[in-house]
C-alpha cells in the first residue's frame, strides 16, 4: 500500500508543482573554449536528434530507442532534457536528461551524451554543471546518476564535480556490465557560478 501512496503523492506534487515554465522555454548562447553554442530545452520534435547523438556516442548502439526519448521528453512536468546545438545550423551535438524525484528531493541524470566529434571541448562538463544548477535552483538537494564500470573517463568527470560512488550495481547494463550509482549532495556545498534567469 505504501508504494502506491508514494506514487500518488509524487503525482499530486507534480500536478500542483510542475517544473518552472521558464525551464522549458529558454534559449541561450554560451561560449565554451573559443566556440559559441546554443542551449535550449529539447522538445518531442528533437527526439530523433537526441537519438542520433546517443548512437554516435555509443558507437552505433543506443541504450534507448527513439520512442523512449519521445516519452521522456513528453513528461515535461518532471523531466527536462537540455541540448547543446551549433549556432546557425541548430545541429544537436550533446544533451543531458534530468528526472526530478520530489519524494526524495533528488534530481537524477537519466542520460548525458556528446557526439564523439565534439568531445573533449567541455560540453559534457558544462551540461552536468548546468543540470546541477537547475536542480539546486528548483530546491532539489541531491543529484544521482549511473555510470558503466568501464567508463573511467565519465567517472573522473563526475568525481571532479563532487560525485561519489555509492554502490556497485551488478550486471546493471543489458550486456551484463556492472555499473556504479554515483551521487552528490547539492545543498550548501555546490556552486556552479552559473545563474539562470
From TrEMBL:
GO MF, one annotated term: N-acetyltransferase activity
Pfam entry (one): Acetyltransf_1
CDD domains xref list: NAT_SF
Superkingdom assignment: Bacteria
Keyword Acyltransferase appears in the UniProt entry: yes
SUPFAM superfamilies, A to Z: Acyl-CoA N-acyltransferases (Nat)
Keywords: Acyltransferase, Cytoplasm, Transferase
UniProt xrefs under InterPro entries: AcTrfase_RimI/Ard1, Acyl_CoA_acyltransferase, GNAT_dom, YpeA/RimI_acetyltransf
NCBIfam families: rimI
Family per similarity comment: Belongs to the acetyltransferase family. RimI subfamily.
Name of the molecule in the record: Ribosomal-protein-alanine N-acetyltransferase
Amino acid at each position: 500500500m505504501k508504494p502506491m501512496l508514494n506514487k500518488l503523492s509524487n503525482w499530486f506534487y507534480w500536478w500542483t508543482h510542475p517544473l518552472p515554465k521558464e525551464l522549458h522555454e529558454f534559449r541561450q548562447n554560451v561560449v565554451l573554449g573559443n566556440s559559441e553554442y546554443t542551449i535550449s530545452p529539447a522538445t518531442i520534435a528533437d527526439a530523433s536528434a537526441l537519438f542520433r547523438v546517443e548512437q554516435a556516442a555509443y558507437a552505433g548502439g543506443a541504450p534507448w530507442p527513439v520512442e523512449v526519448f519521445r516519452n521522456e521528453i513528453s513528461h515535461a512536468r518532471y523531466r527536462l532534457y537540455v541540448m547543446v546545438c551549433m549556432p546557425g545550423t541548430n545541429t544537436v551535438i550533446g544533451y543531458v536528461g534530468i528526472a526530478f524525484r520530489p519524494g526524495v528531493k533528488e534530481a537524477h541524470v537519466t542520460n548525458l551524451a556528446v557526439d564523439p566529434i565534439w568531445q573533449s571541448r567541455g560540453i559534457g562538463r558544462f551540461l552536468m554543471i548546468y543540470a546541477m544548477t537547475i536542480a539546486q535552483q528548483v530546491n532539489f538537494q541531491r543529484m544521482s546518476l549511473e555510470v558503466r564500470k568501464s567508463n573511467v573517463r565519465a567517472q573522473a568527470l563526475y568525481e571532479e564535480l563532487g560525485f561519489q560512488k555509492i554502490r556497485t550495481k551488478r550486471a546493471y547494463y543489458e550486456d551484463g556490465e556492472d555499473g556504479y550509482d554515483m551521487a552528490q549532495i547539492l545543498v550548501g556545498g555546490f556552486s556552479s557560478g552559473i545563474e539562470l534567469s
